Amino acid sequence: MKFSFSRRDLMQSVPAMGLATGILTGVSTSTVCAETLATSSMSLWTGYPRQNQKLVAEVVGSSHFNEQRVKELVKAYPELVNAWWDWGFGDWESPLGAASHVGHRGIAEYLLGQGARIDIFAAAMLGFTDVVIAFVKLQPGIQRTLGPHGITLLAHAKAGGKQAADTVAYLETLGNADLGLKVVTLEEGHKQRYLGEFVSKQPDVKAVCKLNNAKRLVVDFRAGESESTGRLIHYLGDDAFFPAGVPSVRIRFKVENEKAAALTIQGSVPTLTLQAIGN
User: Minimal CA–CA distance to 70: which of 99, 39, 34?
Assistant: First the structure.
């Protein structure tokens, strides 16, 4: 089965594609922006001199849907134009990457005008067919490379609509620009066995496996006092999954009496096992 993302899936799997980046940060987008703008000149944030992670999360999240907010942020902090945000386990995304896979041409063009570094995914969405052809000629097979969240190159081109029709047509001739990751269909009744809360005391990590509005499995992770990170997970069979966009990581459930008793995260450092609460 080919792995694919619908717009509905994306809205459910990427926190900042909701109404506000506050889903990720715990406060509203406008509050984050106002507080950060007000205090940035007076105090240092955690991780300084690296970029303020609240602003990075906000600009990447806003680049999916909020052109006005993107312009406000980049005008105040021009360096954010090339910021990258890790949604979890190494699923990295830039503002341009966000605008590209949802087909937001206005945001993409603005970011490029401010110095964003173009890549093959943005070129595909914008309908820069000659650029995409040049990439493929210089690096045969690059059309199989997956973008943020595991989204294919052809899907990026299709997000560009009519203005990217020629790019779509070219990529379809290649025959392998839409080969996503292999996943297994998980029956609705089978999903219930993985739902629940899990915890690891050393280190302090918590996880909640639940169904999102689209009835797909999502795991919310929280390490210590940090903000939680929700990841859509894709089934591989034998009680094993991988988080969206990171096929090298495995989330394996230990199931006893048709109910998950533990989950282990492998392929990420360190390997962690979390025990189910109340099971």
Answer: 99
Cα separation, 116 vs 94, in Å, equals 9
3-state secondary structure 147-208: CHHHCCHHHHHHHCHHHHHHHHHHHHHHCCCCCCCCCCCCCHHHHHHHCEEEEECCCCEEEE
Give the residue ranges of DSSP H helices in the chain. 7-13, 22-25, 29-39, 53-62, 67-76, 95-102, 105-113, 120-126, 129-138, 153-159, 165-174, 188-191
Are the C-beta atoms of 43 and 52 separated by less than 8 Å?
no
- Bond prior to 49 in cis (omega within 30° of 0): yes
Q: CA 92 to CA 222: how far, in whole Å?
A: 18
For residue 31, the model assigns a pLDDT of 42
Average pLDDT (241-260) is 95
DSSP-assigned letter for residue 271: P
Q: Is 28 in contact with 16 (CB distance < 8 Å)? A: no
Pairing of strands 217-223, 229-237: antiparallel
Give bridge partners of residue 85 from the DSSP assignment: 93
Amino acid occupying residue 160: G
pLDDT value at residue 66 = 98
Residue 173 has pLDDT above 80, yes or no: yes
Q: Is the pLDDT of residue 38 over 50?
A: no
Q: Which conformational region is residue 121 in: left (phi greater than 0), alpha (psi within -120 to 50 degrees), or beta?
A: alpha
Dihedral of the alpha carbons of 16, 177, 112, 79, in degrees to the nearest 10: 50
